[in-house]
Amino acid sequence: MTxxxxxxxxxxxxxxxxxxxxxxxxxxxxxxxTAADGKEMQQVLDNDPVDLVVLDxxxxxTDGLALCRNLRAHSALPVVMLTARSSSLHRIxxxxxxxxxxxxxxxxxxxxxxxxxxxxxxxxxxxxxxxxHAQQLQFAGWMLDMAARQLQRADGVVVxxxxxxxxxxxxxxxxxNRVLSRDQLLSLTQGREAEPFxxxxxxxxxxxxxxxxxxxxxxxxxxxxRNEGYMLCxxxxxxx
Amino acid sequence: MMHFLQSMRGRVFLLxxxxxxxxxxxxxxxxxxxxxxxxARDRAQRVAGQLAGLVxxxxxxxxxxxxxxxxxxxxxxxxxxxAGQATPQSGDEILLDxxxxxxxxxxxxxxxxxxxxxxxxxxxxxxxxxxxCQLVRFTLLDGTPLELVxxxxxxxPMRPLRPVWWGLLLFLACIAVLAWLVxxxxxxxxxxxxxxxxxxDLSSETALLPEAEGSSEVRSAARAFNRMQQRIHEDLRxxxxxxxxxxxxxxxxxxxxxxxxxxxxxxxxxxxxxxxxNAMQQMLQEGLEFARSRDASEPLQxxxxxxxxxxxxADAVDGGQPVQYGEHCAAEVMARPIALRRALxxxxxxxxxxxxxxxxxxxxxxxxxxxxxxxxxxxxPHDMLETVFTPFCRVEHSRSRETGGSGLGLSIARNIxxxxxxxxxxxxxxxxxxxxxxxxxxxxx
Lengths: 240, 445
Description:
The complex is a heterodimer of chains A (240) and B (445).
Chain A lengths: L6 E5 L3 H13 L3 E5 L2 H10 L4 E5 L7 H11 L4 E5 L4 H9 L4 E4 L4 H17 L10 E4 L2 E4 L4 E3 L5 E3 L2 H12 L7 H9 L9 H12 L10 E4 L3 E4 L8
Parallel strand pairs in A: 1-2, 1-3, 3-4, 4-5
Antiparallel strand pairs in A: 6-7, 7-8, 8-9, 10-11
Chain B lengths: L1 H5 L1 H53 L2 H10 L5 E3 L5 E5 L2 H11 L6 E5 L9 H4 L4 E8 L5 E8 L12 H34 L17 H46 L5 H26 L8 E4 H14 L4 E3 L6 E4 L1 H19 L2 E7 L3 E7 L22 H7 L5 H11 L3 E6 L5 E8 L4
Parallel strand pairs in B: 7-9
Antiparallel strand pairs in B: 1-5, 2-3, 3-4, 4-5, 6-8, 9-10, 10-12, 11-12
Helix pairs in contact in B: 2-4, 2-6, 6-7, 7-8, 8-12, 9-10, 10-12
């Protein structure tokens, strides 16, 4: 966390939502700026330092997706997209345009706050990689579809993942060939510290190995390093 | 056999055979009749020729010679008529025509039946048959009227029809083959149409019927069918679009409302309001899901169904729900994974919500996989087992509201399962509890 309160820019054409959101976020200790459309957004960005943009998808004039793409082209400013639509298609487009996260209206205010904090932490920590914006990741003959949250085997068969397994695999794929401790994996996947005797990571790892056809006694893909954690041994590629 | 008779193919086949046979018999009868007529005319011509020869001879002879001549021709079956032999019955028209032709006009020709015939000294070979005698009256060139009785042999007997069996069989076989081909040709397009209507997938734009094949009627039927299919799709799209639009437009005021609720100071009131709003939002969401459950923009993929069930159960367990994944087997189905996940989630949620827990099992046979989701709840009254699939239908109103169902979960699930060419059935288990049974066809190798 930076010392000062992070500057959040809210871009939404609905004045009520803009003000209500500004109220809520400032109550939670964030510094909030607002803009009604792309033009105002650019003015604010030119005049004030901004740490994160909360961007509505449907805006008059230049829409949210185009604004997001412009932002991405010029800076690494984190973006959380808001949209009234909840089909997977928009999620894919949103991620492709470079949004760091994505939330459907109507949302839990607390959920938005959590996402904002999460994105801020990731962008400051610099742990983010290219993989975070990818739609699909390829590794060891498998393909992970980020939008549908499912795996596809080399022969085209879809293998479903539970939410926990998906988060874990995503965390591993974003950091291939690096040892990740249980604590790291827990905070990456569930945003919480490991409690004593927490075996959920081990459970998910064993399920993942089963689904990936990785022999638990002599794993090739997800290796166990005694007293250290786990490591995904594969080349991870983003299909162009 | 009954089935064959009831089918259009059978009927057309039989009708064609019967019609062809009837027309063949009719043609045969006409031909025979015609033949008999030709023979009769030929015989009349011959008799007329004989008579004409006699008349010309008589014309040239003196009265004494005439007497002699007439005595001579008795052997040929011609005799002077005697009084009382004439009857009012008219004679042989064909003979009269033939005589007129041979003798020319001015002879006062008349023919009639003569009775009796038996005094006749007819030649022996003619006598045996019942014969008819014709009375012919005319005048000679010198004006002497003369009346002759001509013994006309009976009509030539036609040979009776003797069936040629192998010919008849060959004929029948030919007609049968032809009738079968025609019947097939006429009924096949109908079968195609029925198949197309049967497999009409409301969720996706399936291959339409070919509009440029077959006869003009078949083509116009195919065009009509395709138009109907398009209209259904348009209607469906419109409905889905409308629901989506309503849901979408409601999302902005709902977002405002949700944010305003944060300003409510009374924590208890705020929680209740948030709860109400969430229920509302869930209903909207499910309405949208329902509208989408018939739409299949998601591509079909080969799916490891075992992994899907394992994931769903793991998610439920992670969420603190009493869900167990028991018996299972390796199986792959052609599926829209996100939609199928939605359907199965609904069934598991229902089991937990109304039955207290969910036991999930997967078994396979040669063609299908069977997913059974069972609970230990009270089940559903027998007469409600089908009606619960109707949108917005709830079994027990007060209880369902409490648990916050929209009454769409099962409708969504069934729509999606049927879209996968599967079946979804609910049954009450003997030991208590409800079983949701999903049958999905396995993906071909």
